[in-house]
Amino acid sequence: MPLRVESVAIMAVIALIERQNILAGLAGHEHPSAASRFFTMMAGLFQRWMYERAQLVECRHTSRVRMHTLPSDEDLRMYLDCLVRPVIDDIIVVATVLELTEFTNELGGDSPLIQDIFTAQFGEDISDATLKSKGAREWARLIVANEELKLAMAQRERG
């Protein structure tokens, strides 16, 4: 299955979960937001593409992929045009049909959510000060909590 189709299918399921949570009055209580999950998926798509040219580097609360060489502007433009933009466009259609207005608004225009994906991939400082979208800030909190849980689980397994 092409990566574009797989990515949109994953986000369609996430959008359906978000819609049901909104209808049940549970939005923000049981699952990360669709915007946060979208951010995670898109960051994963960027990292998947970057892995061949990169190494994993430990940071404050998590590991990050650091590239030895940055992609050329042409390579980046091709990746954006062939995968990233079509996935975003498809997900906007799904979110619009499901009436996920807040999520759709985070994806439209010069989306801070999309800009935050670049910040997470190429920026040095990942904090509420540098991440502008709600989804990215939620992701940043969750990634730290995930690392803390992994550390706690490793300690428990040793003890």
How does this structure look, described?
With 159 residues, this protein is mainly alpha-helical. It has one domain (3-154). The protein is 67% helix and 6% strand. The chain has 6 helices and 2 strands, in the order ααββαααα. It has a two-stranded antiparallel ribbon with strand order 1-2.
Q: What are its keywords?
A:
globular; 6 helices; mainly alpha; two-stranded antiparallel ribbon; about 160 residues; about 5% strand
Secondary structure layout plus pairing:
Blueprint: H1 3-23, H2 34-50, E1 54-58, E2 63-67, H3 73-97, H4 101-107, H5 112-122, H6 134-158
Antiparallel strand pairs: 1-2
Helix pairs in contact: 1-2, 1-3, 2-5, 2-6, 3-4
SSE order in H/E notation?
A: HHEEHHHH
Overall shape: globular
Terminal CA distance = 43 Å
Number of strands: 2
Strand numbers in spatial order across the main sheet: 1-2
Rg estimate, integer Å: 16 Å
Helical coverage, percent range: 55-70%
Number of helices: 6
The class by helix and strand makeup works out as mainly alpha
Domain count, please report it.
Answer: 1
Largest sheet: 2 strands, antiparallel
Low-confidence stretches: none
Let me know the average pLDDT: 79
Strand content: 5-15%
